[in-house]
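User: Could you check the structure of this?
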Amino acid sequence: MCLFTQGCGQEKKNQVNVITIVNIGNNDRIELGKQLRIILDNSPKLVGLDFFLVPDSLGKDSILVKELSRATNTVQVVALHDFDSVTKTWKYLEVSHSKFKATAYGYSNIATTDDSVLVRGLPLKQSYKNSFIPSFSYAIAQKYSGVKDKYRNTDTKGISFPFLQFERGYSVITKEDLMKGNFDKSNIEGKIVLMGYIGYGDDYYLDHGRHWKVNGVAIHAAIINEIIDR
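Assistant: Sure, the predicted structure tokens are below.
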């Protein structure tokens, strides 16, 4: 079995891409609002927001707040902090500012050692206080079309994905192309659109030899592709 490896195992043939990643780059909140406006105008089925909006930036927030208020199907990342090894639960939940509305939430924590993804397995839900928080990928898959039966009742220990595929199974639109309208509308209409950062600083090694890096949003996309009920 090979984990997180390109081209290993069987190819998923004739699989229609249902995910598009929009690279948000280093945009401020005004530009994020403009990006979201374009995305919503092209009728996605769901928008995943793979970024935090914790502090209040006052005037810079107005466009983004407005666009989020008209979005009907969004999943926003949260983060879990301070794991209690005795109770096996997380103590704190980090969320974006309350004025940035979303219809669902999922934790974005990716278990790592230094800057390498822990390939033993990734949990699809985690225990927080008296409830379970779904992963960002799980929440998106569930809202899009549901999750495959074999992944619905997984525990918090994590599961292994033998054939995660990267750089296939989804499309990417750069921030420049999005703003210029230089993209195929079919890559947004009816699709899952993940707004996230592609670039240095949010990338992780996926092999023990530390040769191959993938951005966090691409890891989420690959897991969604694996667990989604088509």
